[in-house]
Amino acid sequence: MAGALRPRWGQPLTGIISFIVFFLVAWLTWYIFSDPRGPVGWHPYPFVLYLAMMILVGLWQHMFLGDWPFANMSQPLRGIVETIVNLVGVWFVIYVIFYGLFGLGFNFLSQTNLNELAAAGKAILPDGKAMTLEAMVKAHFAESAVVCYVLIGFFSYPIVTILFAKWPIRPSDLKQPAAGLAEAGWATMLTLFFYVALIVPFFGMLYGAVLGKSFGFNTAPWWKAIAGIPHVHWTFGWWEWSIIVLFMLPNVWRMKPLTVMKMSQPLKGLLALAGTFVVGYVMALICVAIAPSWLPHETIEQLKAAKPNDAELIRFLWYHAAEIAGFTLIPFLIWHHYFDDICPMADKDSWGAFWFRTVGVLVFTVINYVCYHYVNFGYWGLGVHHMEHLAEGFIHGESLIWNFWWIIPLLWNEWFFHKWPFYVHEHH
């Protein structure tokens, strides 16, 4: 009888081998699909839309549906089948749900609709000129709007499982797929709530003020009074850090401090949610405050010259905060899943182990950041042409794309392939 999983080659060798394999798989697939020097060259759009949706659909498959109905298939067949289902699901969500169904009422969520309006000369700019199809495709407005939905969803979907322990769906005797669909419906309501509050006002400004007049949107993002800018990258900065804090909870902190909170749901979840937002916002503020201390002087000056009152610099710093958060992804995910929370303490759940892994993740985050920007892996490794010069390389802010792509082989192996072939079952 198959028992618990154990690392095939012990630790830390299993973790090291896994890390090398995931990096090489991510690098190879990046070259094939995204690298401008590669055969496809989808950089950055629509590549970023597809990869973002892959992770979100994968989360639905694994976290909500429990890999139903493939959970009992043998490996690697199960992983292959779930990957194929994921890709079909990604196509369905983008082209049927967003571009098709949501596009019936909201053009800003359908790139197909926007392209058709531009091709017909009906996409009108404030000066009365028609926006060309080429300009509309290059602007990828709807693709960006869908990516923003995914960004919100990276947090709002998993909080039901991580912070609320699947309340109010569990405890119950619901079987799959009913339980997963119920959880997905509940989480989607939360996602739409956050999306309308934190994303839609930006697109209201874009379509209502920048591109013309509109009575259908709020054209003044409410957070301008807080952040000093109306750009949606303010949301990106602190929301991405909230995502990191959320996933650090099970992956690095082994659910501390929730394990010491003696209260029932949903109160525990609500308090944890508030705490996650506070820590996420504080981390983003710290990044915004300290990033100029190491950014190239030329970068800062170029951003200051772009718009008055340092609006472009502030926008960049909030987005760069999100980028910095992205560099934590591989360190904390692989440490938990493939190094088995390794630490010098005998008790992996102790507060000493908690702080050891926390500090360790931050150290590896810095190393990751330095390798991408200052060793310039983004240029020679990924082919991002504007990163040839250091000062220019920071401005375009594309490291987040690579960091999310890099975690896909790891997540797919952990979610769909159940760590095959790096881990084996103990037999009794």
What does this protein structure show overall?
The chain is mainly α and 428 residues long. It folds into two domains: 1-43 and 327-428, no CATH class; 44-222, no CATH class. Helix content is 62%, strand content 3%. It contains 19 helices and two strands. It has helices spanning 13-33, 47-64, 77-101, 111-119, 133-139, 141-156, 159-162, 178-198, 200-210, 224-227, 233-251, 267-290, 297-306, 311-326, 329-337, 351-373, 377-380, 390-395, 399-415, and strands at residues 2-7, 423-427. It has a two-stranded antiparallel sheet with strand order 1-2. α4 (111-119) runs antiparallel to α5 (133-139), α14 (311-326) packs parallel to α19 and α15 (329-337) crosses α16 (351-373). The radius of gyration is 22 Å and the shape is globular. The protein starts with a strand and ends with a strand.
Defining key terms:
mainly alpha; 2 strands; 3% strand; 428 residues; two-stranded antiparallel sheet
In short:
The chain is mostly helical and 428 residues long.
CA-atom Rg in angstroms: 22 Å
Low-confidence stretches: none
β content, as a range?
Answer: under 5%
Percentage of helical residues? 55-70%
Largest sheet: 2 strands, antiparallel
What's the total count of β strands? Answer: 2
| Order of adjacent strands in the largest pleated sheet | 1-2
The coarse overall form would be: globular
Distance between the termini: 5 Å
The number of distinct structural domains comes to 2
Mean pLDDT: 93
Write the element-wise H/E pattern from the N-terminal end onward. Answer: EHHHHHHHHHHHHHHHHHHHE
Label the structural class: mainly alpha
Count of DSSP H/I helices: 19
